[in-house]
Amino acid sequence: MQPPTRVIGILSGKGGVGKTTTSANLSVALSELNHRTLAVDGNLAFPNLALHFGILNVPADLQNVLEEKLDVEDVAIRYRDSKLKILQTSLRYKNTSYDNLAKVIQSVLDYDYVLLDCAPGGYMDPMKAFLASCTDVLLITTPDYPSASAVAKIARMAREQKVRVLGVILNRVQNKKFELSKADIQKILDEKVICSIPEDPMVPESISARMPVVAYAPTSPAGRKYLELARFIAAEAPMPEETLLQKIIAWFQRFF
Fold it and tell me: pTM to 2 decimals?
């Protein structure tokens, strides 16, 4: 019997924290673990998930599906020769409602994972539609007060709607003195940090190459972390604990 599809919302309280980068890389990593995966760009206003995969021309899009003009499989594009498909959103502005989003997600439950790259922010109606469509959510933040306080609101909304929060992804970590610590983030959000992604020059380089870093530089620090996160999500392995050496290096980076 096939396990039920997991629909994971990738959420942040503001833009610029690496939410879409996380969506793209986690999608690729899950597909590389042999899971049928659909990555959905849920940002109708400012979409760019497809750009991470080098998809520039979008003949049909999520808006067509939400408007019930086309089915998902008419629109979704397979990424290379993999088990990943991308349901892209038009780069042109279209006044489309999220009202049918949950219905669209219900139509794709033959995938193992559906990753919904949600629009950032706490606008009530879109966020309610996102949460109503998900079985789980991941919260993305950078180690600073504006990002953490913004996503804290999303965490509360998820708990109120009884959507399981898998945890927090602490992104673009430099281990600098001015950054909020993992403990700080957990206190603000009242959720566990399950993965810290380091600031890695391979990430912007991979975006320039129009390829997620997991595929572009899989042995890079960020590439390895995204793969570890995928294994954790798929319950194939726990997130590795920091070694004593890694903790010592992080401490020196923070104060020197």
Answer: 0.90
